[in-house]
């Protein structure tokens, strides 16, 4: 029995929706460098360039996305301030599986800090710059 366009188009649409279904993740970048120091941020994934942003000290910028079901979603950002430039993977589906809902990254001169579980609001895990 051959499939006509009408017979398999609805299952195909359902399958495509299933591929993009998931919990929305909000990545929040907070400038914790020092008073008067702007943080320049350029975030992107393999198929999504979010452009360049400037974040004043104490302020934040955020974006949201839905990770794919293959757990291959990756977002990385280039951070720069006062002649310093650093790159960091702010979301890797394998490494940051616990990052659900809002995932906050605090950028300092020493590195990035995050609270991936959100259970203890004042407990952050820090990654020194490489």
Automatic annotation (TrEMBL):
The keyword Nucleus does not apply. Belongs to the plant self-incompatibility (S1) protein family. This is S-protein homolog. It is found in: Secreted. InterPro entries: Self-incomp_S1. Residues 1-24 form the signal peptide. Keywords: Secreted, Self-incompatibility, Signal. It holds the Pfam family Self-incomp_S1. The keyword Kinase does not apply.
